[in-house]
Amino acid sequence: MIPRILVIDDEERMCWALERALSHEGYQVVTSTRGLQGIEMALETEPSTVIVDLKMPDIDGIEVLKRLKSINPKIPVIMITAHGTIETAIEAMKIGATDYITKPFKLDELKVQVKQALHLSNLENEVNFLRQELGKKYGKMIGQSDAIKEVILLIQQVAKTNATVLITGESGTGKEVAAVEIHKSSNRANMPFVAVNCAALPEQLLESELFGHEKGAFTGATNRKKGRFEMADKGTILLDEIGDMPISMQVKLLRVLQERCFERVGGTETIQIDVRVIATTNSELSASISKGTFREDLYYRLNVMQIKMPPLRLRKDDIPLLVNHFLGKFDPSHTKKISPDAMKILTRYDWPGNIRELQNAIERPLIVCQNNEILPVHLPSELLNNLKETSEPIINLPEAGFSLEELEKRLFIKALEKNNYNQTKTAKYLGISRPTLLYRMNKHGLKF
Question: Per-residue DSSP letters for 139-182?
Answer without folding.
Answer: GS----SHHHHHHHHHHHHHHTS---EEEE--TTS-HHHHHHHH
